[in-house]
Specification:
Blueprint: H1 19-23, E1 30-35, H2 45-53, E2 58-63, H3 70-81, E3 85-88, H4 95-100, E4 104-106, H5 116-123, E5 128-131, H6 134-140, E6 144-146, H7 153-159, H8 163-180, H9 183-199, H10 209-229
Parallel strand pairs: 1-2, 1-4, 2-3, 4-5, 5-6
Helix pairs in contact: 2-3, 2-7
């Protein structure tokens, strides 16, 4: 399987950003970022808000498209976190500036088939806290994996954060992306796979008279049987 990829020429540590200044986030604040649709279902942004609200020194940035749930979720965030929460919607080209303003990435979903935001954050050098679902373990590889279903688990991971662990995850996460998800590396893998397919000998079935008669009979029965059932 060749997975999704990320452009490491756009998503990388050191991207210049004024995101904190624009949104009134103190320069020395501990910032958690989550990127996804602002909704209850699947992305579970309400869970993220409740958990980060229980971390006294944390700010929360939520970047995502709006949904019918967004107004209620924003009201919850403002009620629980006040000025410590920022909601915004950004074009994909501007996402690196938001990631660059954060210290850690998290997503409240219990599972993702892939979750490209994980590897975008990792490419930016952010440690990732996510669901302990087998998909996420296989994709993220280097992260903090917790049971996102139960209240208190994300808050505990953030309150008990170890800076050395986060530094190691930052370094190892960038390595994982470079080895597995960098678009340049994936391009090589695609070309290798195409070359393998081209070089593989194939054996096509010959279209003999018995096969032709069988195909015609199958087509004829397919037309007759529906008529009889009417």
């Amino acid at each position: 399987m060749i997975p999704h990829g990320v452009d490491m020429q756009r998503f990388y540590p050191g991207v210049q950003t004024d995101f904190r200044e624009v949104h009134g986030i103190p320069a020395d604040a501990f910032v958690v970022i989550s990127v996804g649709t602002i909704c209850y279902w699947h992305k579970r942004m309400d869970y993220v808000i409740r958990e980060v609200a229980a971390v006294p020194d944390a700010w929360l940035v939520i970047v995502g498209q709006e949904s019918p749930d967004s107004a209620a979720i924003k009201a919850l965030g403002n009620d629980l976190m006040g000025d410590r929460i920022v909601f915004t919607t950004l074009p994909h080209d501007d996402l690196p500036k938001a990631y660059a303003a954060a210290d850690v990435f998290t997503l409240g979903s219990l599972f993702e088939t892939f979750g490209i935001v994980y590897i975008e954050a990792m490419a930016m050098g952010l440690p990732v806290i996510c669901s302990n679902h087998p998909n996420q373990k296989a994709i993220v590889k280097e992260g903090v994996f917790i049971d996102m279903e139960h209240p208190g688990n994300l808050a505990a991971a953030l309150n008990g954060r170890d800076q050395k662990q986060f530094d190691d995850l930052s370094k190892n996460g960038m390595r994982v992306v470079a080895e597995n998800y960098d678009l340049k590396a994936l391009k090589r893998r695609y070309m290798e796979e195409f070359q393998r397919i081209v070089a593989t000998e194939t054996s096509l079935p010959s279209y003999s008279l018995p096969l032709k008669l069988k195909a015609n009979l199958t087509n004829m029965l397919g037309k007759i049987l529906p008529l009889r059932s009417q």
